[in-house]
Amino acid sequence: MASTGNKKEKWKGLGLWNVFFIGEFLLAGFGYLTLNLLHNVLLLIFVMFPLQNRWLRWLRTLAAVCAAFALVYSESWLPGLESIKGNFHNVAAMETGYIVDSLLNFLNFEMIGIGLVLIVVYYAIRDYVRVTTFTIGYLVILLLAPVWQPLFQRPAPVPAETVAAADSAKKEGAEEVKSDLIPQTLDPTSRNLDEWLKTFHDTEKDRRAVWPDSLPKTDTPFDILLLNICSLSNSDLKAVGLDNHEVLQKFNIRFENFNSATSYSGPAALRLLKSACGQPSHEDLYEGRNPDCEIMSRLGHLGYNQYVFMDHSGKYDNFYQSLRHLAGLTPRLEEMKYPKRYDSFDEEPIGDARAVFKDWEKTAESSDHKSATFVNLIALHDGNRFAGKRRLAPFKPRAKAMLDDLDTLISDIEKSGRKVMLVVVPEHGAAEQGDKVQVAHLRDIPSPSITHVPALVKFIGIQPQGGPVNVTQKTSYLAISTLIGRVLETNFFGKPEGSETLEELVKGLPQTHSVSENANAKVINYNGKDYVKLDSGDWREYAK
Predict the structure, then answer these.
(1) What pTM was estimated for this model as a whole?
(2) Fold of the 223-541 domain
(3) Where is the signal peptide, in residue numbers (predicted)?
(4) Around Cβ 322, how many Cβ atoms within 10 Å?
């Protein structure tokens, strides 16, 4: 009998691995992945290399499956390991049903269906078509893209901002156009975006809101009510059909392009309370106190009494204590005493917002018409349930209830005759609608649909001239604190009709580039396109 010991293993091609690579190509084409071509080539060579020993082939397959999983994970937009590690203690505190529901959001049944179809099609045609040839051929085409793509590319259009600036310069006799926004002139390479972001942060360190050093004795007192609402973005309102709710029409000023700069509650509240200075990096946000940047500290210096109200305990993620230690909040938060309206995602009670507002009204009535109050509400946070119910409460009825309660608050203040500057600044959105980068309700990456929130201002007790006014420029917290400073400086409440028109009041408010950060993710808008950086990786264009 002839020996078969020297028989060589026949080159069989990629086999079922064709489905994996074709699936990757499709996911990349739809924007769900960013292909790492080098790593894909190495994996392809690894799985194609012929091996004679059955056990070596089995070990190779095991290693390849692990490598493929790691490769897809690195190419995807899923939270990085650093992010998962950093949020593990928060996840551990969440209610089990909420965790399970969140995990189910990651299942994309459309993609699963396409994957199953690919497998069926592969087995149907493999005996008639050399699928491996097409797989390798397409990968080669992608590798050669830097050579052939420029031949088919059209010149990139000039950004609208650049055109507008040029037109403005012509109208003003070619004089220099002043802008708060630093230039974005270089190509969006990873290195250039890193340098631009550094320049942005360096510039923001020197920016300050203009406030009066003192108020005259003849100044008309009024209350400042800062309402910080968790999980409410412009995208969320539109998704559930509440973007035209009647209360939104009652505000005097609306910031149409306001960026909350983060997708988590703690840093969002800190950014609001430290908004008298320019926008710091996420890391600098936690470097300690600077009273010059703290709007509550500066209001206290002007004689305002400070109050804090929340519809929750403030214990989750050490929320309230961080505001005391880093943002200058001085009042101690009382134990939650309001009727329970919801059970939270971490199984703590959430009080009725109407009771919170009534409590503030009672406190305001006993003050000297000169109070500064910070109110934080989490009723709209993902994972909350109606009190006593196990099923997660839908977002729309909770959002409608919040807007209705806000409407009632405005009516009650108007009836009281008090003069109040009501400032509504949501922390971030609820991510009601997911995208190719993040599934619904995931907020690890601070995308524009999450951070662009409806910032609103209402002057109660006077009838301002003009308006309502929509501020369309790119703005963030510095614009809010500057507006408060102008209201104080101009004695805006000193006359029944206001001391100046709303248009004059908002003219020239500081603009801020759309830059958003979490601990392990950054998103910037550069020349009209959004770019994201996860952990210490490179910048990638945000898939729409």
Answers:
(1) 0.83
(2) Alkaline Phosphatase, subunit A (3.40.720)
(3) none
(4) 17
